[in-house]
Amino acid sequence: MNTLVTKIAYKWISLTLRNPWITASKLSTLPPEPVIPSKKPLRVELLGGKRYSWCTCGHSKKQPFCDGAHKFKAQGLSPLRFFSPEKDSTVWLCGCKHTNNPPYCDGTHKQDFIVSAPLHEHTDPST
Predict the structure, then answer these.
(1) What is the pLDDT of residues 89-100, one digit of tens each?
(2) Range of the domain at 69
(3) Do 47 and 88 form a contact (C-beta atoms < 8 A)?
(4) What is the torsional sign of CA 46, 51, 55, 61?
(5) Is residue 22 part of a domain?
(6) How many domains does the chain have?
């Protein structure tokens, strides 16, 4: 059995040394950090009682709502599903993705770490 363990350990070490980024990303327990698509809140008209999916990763091209981009660009993050108030209303949804009251803006975008951070720019591979 000792030989089997040694062979397995050798195989794991050699694969880790050849591809350290693969192992590190699979072992991480922390979700990826969202990117910042906007440094301002987004004014949105919500229909009363409707369910919405707010983008938490920042990669969606339909900000502030999810378009599924997290499945490819931010695995580990998923949209926040929420119901709008009973009546139609206008709300300000967070654009920086760092609010402490998701999906609503709480002014976090005014803090230095957001102000000094780069904005995420979508790249279109077809162009």
Answers:
(1) 999 999 999 999
(2) 42-116
(3) yes
(4) negative
(5) no
(6) 1
